[in-house]
Structure formats: structure tokens, C-alpha cells
Amino acid sequence: MSDKNLLDPGFELTLRPMRYPDFYERYRDAIKNTWTVEEVDLHSDVTDLAKLSPGEQHLIGRLVAFFATGDSIVANNLVLTLYKHINSPEARLYLSRQLFEEAVHVQFYLTLLDTYLPDPEDRAAAFDAVENIPSIRAKAEFCFKWMAALDGTDGVEKIDRLESKADRRRFLLNLICFAACIEGLFFYGAFAYVYWFRSRGLLHGLATGTNWVFRDETMHMNFAFDVVDTVRKEEPELFDEELERQITGMIREAVEAELQFARDLCGDGLPGMNTDSMRQYLECVADQRLVRLGLAPVYGSENPFSFMELQGVQELTNFFERRPSAYQVAVEGTVGFDEDF
């Protein structure tokens, strides 16, 4: 059996005996969650969109514009960085599956935009959101700042092999940005808007697809945190006070970027949704990410959204007495939202 650590350079191929069987089990669990975009019915959403106020229509337009680019940023980092540097064939099996899931999410958001924005110019503007919408550009710039440290963009030296402890710390910051800030904060913020509409009996199709995306993203986040745990066990010296300070600062920056997005979406406030309540929600989620990483919480906020506490991932549509949405492959067990909010 190899005595290499998870971040040691190389390309391990041997699956027996397994060094990291838990990663293999995560891969097997992910296969059970297979779903397709064709299972999501968006027809009733078109009727609902016409009922929305101008402020609500602005919010949903901004939201789908973010969706159009968010998962593409994640997928690129997955291929260019995570798969390259996590030296475990078991983990790479999971990352291969995750890449497929990100592709399904991109397809879902493409279908969503085609349905919600029938005008070709509106769709083109949504896909150019990173360039044209300041609040989305700020989130993208945050992602590039923390995740570009390995790929040679923005004048930063490219890292091909994690030879030094400094290189490995830079990789950890990339991974934690991906898990805690993008998957674990930006997307969780977006999901809250979706479930706010759903709690009011609106946009059931969007909520159905989001249920499955939500479950996938939660698994992606938990896998990444497992990688962080493994590295901490193998190389505890990497997790010094400076790294902890950087992680906490990164998550604070993520909250502020997402709040800028919330101000854009909510304006002066909508019934049951405003910037102040979204700030409290984001701070609550951010604290949970910090605690999961073994760090002290910094906000002390509680979740203000009761509609988030009602969510169950597997069959959310039961609440509205619609046909339950289920995966193609049976999944045992449940996911508790209270753990993530």
C-alpha cells in the first residue's frame, strides 16, 4: 500500500487495497441520486411568472442569470485544479461523477433560461451576466481571486505540483472557497430565494429541479470537507493560525459579496424577503461552514427563514399536494436541512 499523503504529487492508479474507502462510498452514493432535466416540468412556472410583481420579476431574472454562470465556474475549477491535485483514485471517481452532475445542473439552468426568458436578447444578457451585472461580477471576481491561485491567471504563478507546504495551503484555500463559499454559501443563498417563492405556492418547477441540485451540491460540499479533514489528519501542520485567519477572512468576503447580490435582488424589500433577513441567513450559514471547518463562528446569527426549516430534499412537492418528485434510483435515508442552516 502506498504511504503517500492525499496531496502528494503524482497520479495514483491502484484501487486495491483502498487507501480512502470513504471517498469510494461517496461515489457509490452519488450514483444512487441520478436525475435528468427532462423530469422537471416547468410549464406551470410560465403562468406563475406572469403573476409576479415587477420587483419579484427583477429578482428571478437576476437569480437565473447567476445560475447561468455559477456552476460553470465550479466545473472549470473541478477539472483544472481539484481532479489534478487530489491524488486518490477513489476521490477521482467521485470527482468524475461530480463533473457529470455539474453538467446536468448547467443543462437545467440552460433549460430554465430558455423557458423563463423567451426573448433571445434577454437570454444573451443573462449569459453575459458576469460582464454586465455588477453584483454577479463581484461574486465571480471573488471566486477568481481565491481559486485562481493555482492556475496561473491574474499574474499568479501556476502550480503544477503541490511540492511545498505553501503550495498545499494555496490548494486548501481553493478547495475551501469552492466548498464553503461557492457551493456552501452562494448557492445556498440562491436556494433560499427559490424556496421563498415555493413557500408562496409559486414556481413549482424551479423548486423541483432545485431540490435535486440542492442534494447534489450538499454532497459536493461534504465531499470537499472530507478532503479537508483528511489533509488535516495527514498534515496537521498546514492548519496554522495564518491559514485559519485566511479562511475566516475569505468567508467574510463571501458574505459581503452575496449581500451585494441580495441588495440587487431585493431592492427596498419584498414581502418576506429583504436584505436584512438575507444578511442574517447568510451569517447563520457562514457560521456553520466555519464550525464544520473547526473554526470559531464569527456572527452568532440565527436562520430567519421559517420556510427553509420546512424543506425536505426528497419530496418537497408533497407540501403542495403535487406528484412527489423522486430520483430514478431509490435512495435510502434522508438529508436533514437543520444541519446546514
UniProtKB/TrEMBL annotation:
Cofactor(s) in the UniProt record: Fe cation
Cofactor note: Binds 2 iron ions per subunit.
Keyword Oxidoreductase set for record: yes
CDD domains: RNRR2
Stretches of the chain forming a coiled coil according to its record: none
Annotated TM spans: 171-196
Statement: the UniProt record of this protein carries the keyword Transmembrane: yes
Pfam families: Ribonuc_red_sm
Keywords from the UniProt entry: Deoxyribonucleotide synthesis, Iron, Membrane, Metal-binding, Oxidoreductase, Transmembrane, Transmembrane helix
Main enzyme class: oxidoreductase
SUPFAM superfamilies associated with the record: Ferritin-like
EC assignment: 1.17.4.1
Substrates-to-products reaction catalysed: a 2'-deoxyribonucleoside 5'-diphosphate + [thioredoxin]-disulfide + H2O = a ribonucleoside 5'-diphosphate + [thioredoxin]-dithiol
Subunit organization: Tetramer of two alpha and two beta subunits.
PANTHER family: RIBONUCLEOSIDE-DIPHOSPHATE REDUCTASE SMALL CHAIN, RIBONUCLEOSIDE-DIPHOSPHATE REDUCTASE SUBUNIT M2
Family listed: Belongs to the ribonucleoside diphosphate reductase small chain family.
Annotated function: Provides the precursors necessary for DNA synthesis. Catalyzes the biosynthesis of deoxyribonucleotides from the corresponding ribonucleotides.
Official protein name in the record: Ribonucleoside-diphosphate reductase subunit beta
